[in-house]
Amino acid sequence: MDICVIGLGPVGLIHGTSMAEIGHSVYCVDRDAGRVEMLNKGITPFYEEGLEDMVNRNLQEGRLSFSTDIGSAIRKSSVIFICVGSPMGSDGSADLSQVTEAVLSVSKNLNGYKVVVVKSTVPVGTSAAVKRIIQQNRTESNDVDVVSNPEFLREGSGIYDTFNGDRIVIGSSSPVALRILRQLYQKLNVPVITVSPESAEMIKYASNTFLAAKISFINEIANICDRVGADIDEVAMGMGMDSRIGNRFLKAGIGFGGSCFPKDVNAIIRMAEKKGYEFRIAKQVLEVNERQKLIPVKVMERHLGDLAGKTISVLGLSFKPDTDDMRFAPSIDLIKALTAKGCRVKAYDPVVQEGAELVPGGTEVCADLYGAVEGCHGIVLVTEWKEFVEMDLERVARLVREPIFVDGRNCMDADRMRSLGFIYCGIGR
């Protein structure tokens, strides 16, 4: 099947490359000429395990191409995926300007029946709006079906999730479009559910908001555990054994980040408000998360007093391991808070390097882990990279000025660290 993918961010690039991997001819387009040039050389613009190898393999085998010529890609394709960004606007709602721009391009290049698939995360009612835009702006009277097909990829494991997903959600009332999409995804062998476009759009927001709520809930329980002497790991284990609850997303820490949860929770809050409903739980999820990011600052003040002039090491800048994405990363707010207290901040991340766009100004980004901890009064582990979990703790103990260690992801062996002389502080432990 001939497919056009509009937008080469993580969603578009992973989706397009995966579709080529299962045998489709995929024309990927983006307005960023520099990004397209990189990809045509087989270089991916962001870190995602296994993606660059898959891109190169499908480029060489002729199933995958990259271009800025959106019109040509649309005309050559029978299915068009819109995978552009829908970032958070100034009021918290989803900014759909990139989606509208992509849809207008589709409208002007129709040359036969097309299935237009909205994979971007968009508010309920967007698929219907896309249909209207196409009808109002098309230059030919060709039939078009618009389908909502939200993505459920986790950054850092997007390829795995594509081929091993829990479900594929297809929102459409068109039997023809449903048949085409089922055929397109057949080789993935992932369960497919078909619903209305409105339900498909809501499934995405409801799923992400529920997962974010689960994280904020366990973080609140962890904060209580710290005050009553319980261990959050033991509590989460006991909770997770209840089949009604499950053990996933019950890992306490210093809050969530990334491009999805903060954006999508804000978007569903605004979407509800526009319909006259206050989504109170979702608001509390965000408030809890913002407070959680700053717990390490309070811990450092408890042990060091005035932080002015102190050097703090921050291990991990990306919002999670196996990605270089820093959007809404807890490290950003943490570093800004430490700097505001007069701290010197030394940071290290295995993937995010010096000069990365979202690293707060004044941060000393070190080339290696041990350089980042040398001479520090305290360490905060923000991202649970394998390199940090397996670090040489004896060496770290020799390098630090003060052995205060805040484990923001509860991924270290607390007993071993304390036996080595660290003042170990987990979250709820």
Fill in the keyword field for this structure.
globular, 6-stranded parallel beta sheet, alpha/beta
Secondary structure topology:
Elements: E1 2-6, H1 10-21, E2 25-29, H2 33-40, H3 51-60, E3 64-67, H4 70-76, E4 79-82, H5 97-108, E5 114-118, H6 126-137, E6 144-148, H7 158-163, E7 168-171, H8 175-185, E8 192-195, H9 197-228, H10 232-240, H11 261-274, H12 280-292, H13 295-304, E9 311-315, H14 330-340, E10 344-348, E11 364-365, H15 369-373, E12 378-381, H16 386-389, H17 393-399, E13 404-407, H18 414-419, E14 423-425
Parallel strand pairs: 1-2, 1-4, 2-3, 4-5, 5-6, 7-8, 9-10, 9-12, 10-11, 12-13, 13-14
Helix pairs in contact: 1-3, 5-6, 9-11, 9-12, 11-12
What does this structure look like?
- There is one protein chain.
- Helix content is 44%, strand content 14%.
- Helix 5 runs parallel beside helix 6 and helix 9 packs across helix 11.
- The chain has 429 residues and is an alpha/beta fold.
- The longest helix is centred in the middle third of the chain and has 32 residues.
